Fold these 3 entries.
Entry 1:
Amino acid sequence: MKLFGVDVGGTFTDVMYSDSVAGTVIIHKVPTTGDDPSRGVMTGIIELCERNGIDPAQIDYVFHGTTIATNAILEYRGAEAGMITTKGFRDIIHIGRHQRPQHYSIMQEIPWQNRPLVKRRFRKVVTERLAPPNGDVLVALDEDEVRVAARELKASGVQSIAICFLFSYLNPDHEARARAIVLEEYPEAFVTTSSSVVSQFREFERFTTAAMNAYIGPPVRNYIRQLDNALRGAGMKAELRIMRSNGGVATPATISEFPVLTLLSGPAAGVLGGALCGQLSDRRNLITFDVGGTSADIGVTNEGRFSEASARDTTIAGYPVLVPMIDIHTIGAGGGSVAFVDAGGAFHVGPRSAGSVPGPAAYSRGGQEPTVTDANVVLGRLDKDNFLGGEMSLDGAGAQKVVGEIAETLGLDIDEAAVGIITILNSNMANAIRSRTVQKGIDPRDFSLMAFGGAGPLHGAEVADMLGIPEVIVPAYPGITSALGLLASELKYDSIRTQFQVSDALNLERLNADFLQMEEDINRQFEADSVAAADVTVMRFADARYIGQGYELRVDIAGGSIDADSMERTFEQFHRAHEAEYGHAFPQSPIEIVNVRVTGTAPSPQLEWPKTKGEGSRDKALVKTAKTKFRVDGTLQSFDTAFYRRADLPVDSSIAGPAIILQLDTTTVVPPNWSFTADPHGNLILTAGVAS
Amino acid sequence: MSKHGTQGRIDPITAKVIQGALENIAIEMGYKLMRMSHSSIIRESEDFGAALIDADCRQLAEAKQSTPLQSGPIPGYIRGMLRMLEERGETIKPGDVIMHNDPYGGATHGPDVAFIVPVFHEGMLAGYAVTTAHHLDIGAHTPGSGGIVDAIDCYAEGLRFQAIKVYEEGRRNQQVWHMLRTNIRLPDLVLGDMEAQIAASRIGAQRHLELIERYGLETVTAATEDMFDASERLLRSAIAKLPDGEYSATTYIDGFLDDPDPARRDLPIKVTIRISGDEMHVDLTGTAPQVSDRPINMPFKGTVDCAIWLSVRSVLLDSAVHGEIQQNEGLTRPIRIFAPEGTLANPIFPAPVIARFCPGIELSNAVVQALSQVVPRQVCGSCGNGGGLLLAGQQGENFWLQVELFSGSYGGRWQMDGMDSVDVLYANTRNNPIEDIESHVPLRIERYELREDVAAAGRWRGGIGSIRHLRFLSPGSASVESEGHKYAPKGLFGGADGTPSQLIRVKADGSEIQLPSKVPHHPFGEGESIIAIRACAGGYGNPHERDPQAVLADVLDEYITAEQAFSQYGVKVADGKVDLAATSAARAA
């Protein structure tokens, strides 16, 4: 198999090629082309092929991560969209949950009011009403009204239309019929229905997700078409697969219909890439720690399984979005995080970031405020002559100046201030990890911290120390983990149905019928992708809660025909999960099955990772020895520290810290009392405790 | 910034790390309570609080998810609890869990019950982890814990708990739990929520203790003292920027508009803010006398103080401008509050208080209006008040209950229109999804939309209220606790006043009856319905200065009519466009 993984970032497009027969992996980086990212994608693929004598026509798959949809939302730059909704409910997506994003603010904005995905003038209402519990038709759909609304929306120039009816998750017929009528009147329009995007209760969140799908539909559809054409134009026969936020990939046809599935797929690919690297070294309990200039993304894989975010916690740019996503906790902490003292004299680091422009003072791009990167320069951990493999030199004096100023304000010496900035940042990141582990009954000491991104390996060991995590892993290419994750992704489809069934009065017949139906739906999608049923792994889950609760926990449901016994096991699992998650269970309380879910996955071709050849040595890798500063046993001390070039390190040979390891995409810090080993799979393994 | 005056007790880095850890604990408590609780008022409406308190009753950190009026009063709960224990000669012991809700002992009102878990370190009391939550029912004389607007004294409002140990040294006090189960409607839900509160408080206490053990009590205390001082300095520096002087505003509440007794309606709430250097004195003299036999009085500690603290900080330390600032003891220090005894703002026991929410919003409105005289670009026109509707009924053997919290709306702001149909000021709850309500109780929501053609004009217009129409699918009852049926939210700086709220009962035959803003428990028949029409908030600035394109957008979005565009804004809209010449002429006239 010959595969490409192409991840489009803000600045660079990362391209990774893998040949599973030859056992080769090649990486390449080209500038991202902002106006039409598909140009950068093609340049990257073609250049890599040309330079390495690869025939583009022989490529089997191109796995692609795109931020087209995400950027359209973040920059509020989507299509003009319309909505057809139930009469009486025109403003569901405007009122939301009647809650403000911030408690203590008069001057705040509300994203869905200040930047509506569908303006009120383009929200049309039609007569129809469904009712729970079965989605019975209370008021028939007025088809003439739908037709009139479609004509009006067409005349007003909207490009896409979301059809959002109350209770459509129980009965999609009205939405489907309305969609058919709209397409008769306006065949070129992008038309989506809320029940097809996500068949789940909570109207504000579902309607918003559908509106978002309509808002980003046209640009994403155009982009995919352009890219596919460009691939064909270059003589490639490769199948295109697009990354989703659930950690799977989907076909261009699926993504063109449901572009909302790609939101936040970049960080998801990062987690996948991190997990893959961990797997190479046989680690299955991983905390992925992806730190860039502005934010840190934290994910947990437990025994190789990702946790999925709770539907109520997933947002983008402040809008709720109800699509399956890997649970990734993002906080505003990174290399560009700004340190400042507020008017009350309190010391803060972040969440504001200096970004890349003006950036840290050390970048000499006009940054005047001290950042985490500047603090790392002051302490000698970032080497001004060996940053990004020497491609960019750092302004040491600039960093000294800004960190010196805040030190003066705080009444500290400059090194104390610098280490303080890093300590506060690390502590914020450790708290974020704690919220995803300790607070959910997971002991981080049983995990490895997989540190990547430009700044992850700089901070990984000290963050691990704060949490008692014994080991940090830095993958071979910490800057392109998302591209790598693409190559590790699977074809994956989900189906969901809201149930509201209670444990003491289960309708097993309905459950079994729904599961069969959902599995048929999923199999049909795989068939459309030419995947044989035998290659598909199907898993069932329930979102369950104690009766009366509003938040669900996910538990497994047995395959095949479900009976009272198999459900009893599910309920027992629920009690245990509740105890683990919250520290308490209510064993007497009935359990409500809110949603049932089916996930189908089909494996993608496996990536073959070449083993590192053991040609390096410590002497060959040593670049220099210089002073760096660390706090050990409560005092800040200066250490003679070896700086190594990563590519020349010996394999399987443990080296004691302190040490700094240099490579193109990142700098790894090994503090005193830590040691490290380059393993044959390309990973650096940092181990807590004094090396022998 | 000079070093002087900001030098802390410990280094600023350790201080910050400990503060971050405290905040993280409070968030964990809130997260767990919200997700574990059983009734929609806590988990959907988020009408709960969680906070860590130190041994001197000072707030260290609060859960971000909680509604401000729940976490804010927690230090007062602790003080009230301690006073009660002292009077009885009792002490707190490790393993105790204490229940408290006395509105004359620090609580904001009876339904908001606190569960307090003490933190002991080396045998000494080192602090408290506390959750509060609005319970669906605490055994008042009519069902539910909202809309109890005819309670004649504190005794009629439901069970009062004055520092009751539900666990004593780790042992469950079964007798208390039996009594709760007997006297509370919906005991499974309410007691389940109480258990969830205890579990969340215990987690908080455990984490707080781990933090103290890790850093030492002395270091943690020093870090928190520094945190209070820094917060205090932050607010003082904001107050110091304001010119010294006296700034007053008065708002009015309906009270009981259908009551023959004039002392029960049209009641002023007067706020006078005196600024002197970096101090603020808030004086409520001029506020109406208490209504001794109706529950619209506001506990001085628990409601009045919180309403003032939280409105002042929302204006002077607005988080959209200043970033997130943890609410703690330090932010209350520069503010002194006075309210004469025997007024709505400082009632005398046993005057009832259960419906204090809406008067508290008007008090907050008055604070913001008074501040508009000094910081005109940091305030908004008066907000539309909230409140709630309580619906209940019997279906077979099952008693059901649904709390519908009303939204309000925000007044127009400098360079921004007001927020539409949101909870306001010291409250920030959430509505319940329609698809959740109809799946669980016999109600049908017929309509939930914004009002049209009544938005308050202004250079930046007032926020728009909503209309929510609910129908009973089987016989039941309703009670209402709201405000603002008579008094429209005031506009600012030439902006128009808003539009009052209305409440309509639609009988099965279609006839309509206007209801006042307070309706005690009342039966409703199958097919009858209630329409809650919520206030539109006040506008900001001269409507003739509004961008004509923004006026056009409001016409296209059907918030206002083309006629209103012309009569209120002097903007001529024709064929979906602004007629610039006609607009200039109209505005020049």
Note: Chain A touches chain B through 75 residues (CB under 8 Å).
Entry 2:
Amino acid sequence: MLTFTRGLTTGSRLFAPDKYYKITRYAKPLSKVSYKAGDVIPADRKVSIPPNKRHYPLYEYETMFFKSQNRGLYGGLQRTSSRTCSESGNKNLRSHKPNIVSSSIYSEILDKVFKVKVSTRVLKTISKEGGLDNYLLKDKPARIKTMGKVAWRIKYDIMKKLESDSLPVIEGKRIYLAYKGHNVYVGKNKLLSYLFEYAKRDTYEPITESQFLATNSWKDIKEVCQDLEKYSFDFKQVSV
Amino acid sequence: MSANGIKRRLQKDFSRLNKALRAQETKSNNRMVLPYFEQDYDLVPKHEQKLDFTQVGLAEGDLVYITKGEHKGKISTLFRYTPEFDTVYLSDVSEKKVVPPTQWFEQQESHLIDYPQQIPRDHVRLAAKDIDSAGKTYYIVADAVVYKDKYYDDRYKQWLPKRFVKHHESIEVPWPGPPTDPKDGELSTDEQVALEKTYEVQSIAIPPVPIGALDQLRNPHSKFKSKILTELDARRLTAPEMPLSKEQKIYLAKKAQQPPTSVKDLTEEMKQLIGEKMAQHLNQIENPYMKIHLDALSKNTTPEFEKTMKLIRETQELNKAEEQK
């Protein structure tokens, strides 16, 4: 026998207060438009092209208030206010700032010491988690919302290091790319220097290395290999 | 910020104030000014100023009729319109002004001089003079004018709308002649020289300027042109993505293996139960208007319901196809 219940809003998550509402509400808005070569940007839309390549992913929860929290590990702590009350009953507003200390924190994975401003609460959390790496690598949404922009960037460095460390090693050499049966053990920059030797012979007018890099440095390692293959490059000298 | 920028920020900008604040400001300014030099008229903000005489409806040389003030009923010719105050100067209407001796001009003997009086634009109406069949002159005053058609006026060297009296649109009031004939100055070019054509396009198939020279004539980096992104621009605009963690990769791989969610159709038992419950409820309703309302409501379809029904139909078809195999 079936029974009907009206489980609509009672005890619903709809009314659960968002703990980090202030951060999510007042975060710096990001444009999520993906651009490709050949896209037309009309004159009335202003898109400023950054002078250099972006090195870090955009942080979604960069706050627009109490901006020092973007420059340190504050753990979502902000300025709060309360009223003081004198004996005669006069009330005045006062502020409470989080307890911030500047501290040197060691990252085991990067083998590097970061001198940052940290709230004492975050220091406690870091020791509880067992180091900066564990603190940053935790994937819970609350951690990501409260870590701040600086921590987000350190996290990216750590993730990249982990990614490169996980690359396979053959004959004592780290393999950056498996390209058509060749295990390439040199990095992108080395491959670009090989490509430049071909490219400067390929043009009628001579080109400098900086001119070459301006149009090729943004390519990833696979694209450089594809370009080298067009010049029938011998991959044996860079692969095992 | 430059010193000039700071100065501009601290200066009081009349055009940014609202009407009430402007009035307050002029009042406070007038306190320290001699009574004859007071500013009587409200300053019109720059974006509201009418700079074209077709917007004003009056041109220099027009006859106007004064509807308000001490000169009410007078007909006079307009010789200047001031867009800053939205006022007009008329040829016969003047007022006495006191001039301090330091500002006297030559052969002046009295403190008082006749000075053309400013009259608000709202206080004057367009007038026109004509002669009737008996040879008598008479005046027409237009409360409002309407524009119709366009013609090329050789005196103004521009296209002008024709002016008619509103609601009496058979009466046309032509624009007066331009105020003064332009005189040649040092830097002026002769009209014939300016209009002379030294080159004429022979064919639209062949461009007059070679395509290679276009970039030198035009600004290829102009901010008013739409920009086509190069590969480098696009790569600069896109930030790298945060790599996925091991746990995230495992989760996504598991999710990809899961079959897509399928929605099943209601069984006969379920349908019967829902139908019974609804019938039981509906049979209790006696109000005829409520019944009509519910009848109309039952014809409406909600998009969400349509979506789920579509999903059910699709899954049913898939199931049937699998059974046949």
Note: Residues 63 and 323 of chain B are 94 Å apart (CA to CA).
Entry 3:
Amino acid sequence: MKKLYSNKLVILSLVLPGILVFIFAILAPICLSVYYGCMDYSGMGKATFNGIDNYKMLLRDAAFGRALLNSLLLAVGFVFIQHPIALIVAAVLDKLQGKAEGFFRCVYFIPNVISVAVIAYLWKFIYNPDFGLINNILKSLGYQEKINWFSPNIAIWSVLIVLIWHGFGWGMLIYYTGIKNIDPVLYEASAIDGANQATTFLKITLPLMKPVIQINVTMAIIAALKQMETVYLLTNGGPGNSTQFAANYLYQQAFKAFRYGYGNAIGIVFIIICLVVTVGLNTIFVEKKEA
Amino acid sequence: MRKKLLVGILAVCMTATLLSGCKGKETKTEDASVSATQQEQTEAEKVEDTAEPITLTVFSNLPDRKNGQGLVEQKIIDDYMSENPNVTIEVEALDEEAYKTKFKAYAMNGMPDVVSIWGQPSFLDEVLEAGILEPLNEADYADYGFVSGSLEGFKKDGKLYGLPRNTDVMGFYYNQKMFEDNGWEVPKNYDELLVLGKKIKEAGIVPVAMDGGDGWPLAIYLTDLLVRVDGNIKDIVSNAIATGDFTDPSIVEATKLLAKTAQSGLFQVGYDSQDYGTAMNLFTNGQAAMFYMGSWEASMALNEDISEEVRNNIRAFTMPPITDGKGAQTDIAAWNGGGYAVAAQSEQKEEAIKFLNYMYQPDKLSKYGWENGVGMSAQDQSAYMTGNETNLQNQFTDILNNATSVSGTPINDCGPSVFKTAMESEIQSVCNGTKSVDDFLSVIGETCK
């Protein structure tokens, strides 16, 4: 067996599929994007080289700035609202035991099972000022004014609520699995020492969940940066660009505005931002581990 | 033992094959004995049978194949296939936005044979520059009864690349019964429209259902107002797009009026984030008194999904004139937008053009369209007036016949697609007051430079 693994041809045959997938599915598209990002190209006909003009334009593009700001807001929402709640809910579920545990685990995960298109239209109807659920509840409580939940000032918050609600199940499920892996002996020991529920959570669950939290936070931030489908179907970035997100803006520019070159430039900047964020987060977490 | 069994099975198979061969011979002998007359009769069928099978692909922006324009298109396709049994037509239909995205993907990797197109610079300029469409011989269409000027949007450098399907007129649909029950009257000028809007709102009804989420109906509304302000807008718009300078007083005035209208509450709450279907449902469900949309929705009067009380009472009027404006109510926002073309790289080009020409035979698109109440064709439809037209059809026909001028392509479709995209997004901001009129005009101007 050892002899087999030291054969370079065997090693190559084992590594080659992975390398090929990486080259053709990741590296080549990125290289093509870099190439088209330096072109004035509508996606049809001839492309003309324009150097870094697309990137210069991107720096002055207020809509792209707004899209990045919205992505940042969503990332903050995920990290400071969605995940703390998901972690607490996971801890509570763990304590529930029995049928209730399974039931609520399913209930909290349901939004993740429903298709994005259904979610978007469901919330469109919930938010509708004329026949939406929220305004009708408010009306039955005596509030007659029709609230526009997608008015430019509050539209982004309405969108964030949907996105946080929709992604909640995944975060909770990962935390729940992490909690389930904690050795019950530790809880028994803490109970014998007289620790209450809050102390047990803060002193045992939370410290042992650190690796899971790190993975979840990294995934949440990347998900916030990549956000596209729900926003596209819910508001398409509007009104104006008030709910614009980077991926949606990329799509609009490349496929609606026929600015394929510019769209690719957005894609490249987008990749760089994602890489910087991932490397940054890894550095922070590694430093903390060492400390 | 096993060997014997195998030999047995093989022998049975061989005998069966031989017998079937003899039977085939028998049939052929019988065939040879049919009479000469029958032979002649089947000759034509044989020619058709032996004609090489052809598969045409049609890429359409009409996904609803059971109602309206999509039904008309499908009927023509079915007719063509029954008249040409060797031709199979495969249809791929997507709604407009998805259609335009996939159109671009096809442009890179081989287009279907016959495609839907828009005879407007925002769509056609890039498409023609890329050489995707096959030029057509304009002289072939001399007898097709196209309305004067309707082919212009589909031409470049004197060559014709597509044919228009409709003549589109923009207007306010209104619920006549609701108006009568509440004592409201069709406004004679724009100020009356704004006053009427307030009255309707006070009655707890949405004055005008507007598809503001898509941006383009707002842009057409702006075009309509610009026509009221200046009468003839073609030069103003083309100059603004050529120079990127949108500070012409007429454009500024029309934009201010649009912003004032939107902020006065003429449209439903949240109009700037609501889509076509939501806006239309408000009107067809009786929650809105008016609906600003094109003549292609005249088929609402025949749509049995809409309650009888509403569908029998839908009427239309065009944008009322404004005080001191140069445009009259008979200067209308109308254009020839959608149509069809043949792909330059089609492998079945000859058959595709034959099918395109078949679609535009006067008794096809025009006739079927009129019978199904889907609005006005870009061809002369007078021969198909039956006297059983809906009130809406008659109203739109009168509006078009009595028009003193037509706006041509709406402002958002006059420039490149980057201008269109920016305008349809930014117009929401100027309407809801998050962007000033000057900033809006400056931003859309930048996209033209």
Note: The domain at 168-334+406-446 of chain B is CATH 3.40.190.10 (D-Maltodextrin-Binding Protein; domain 2).
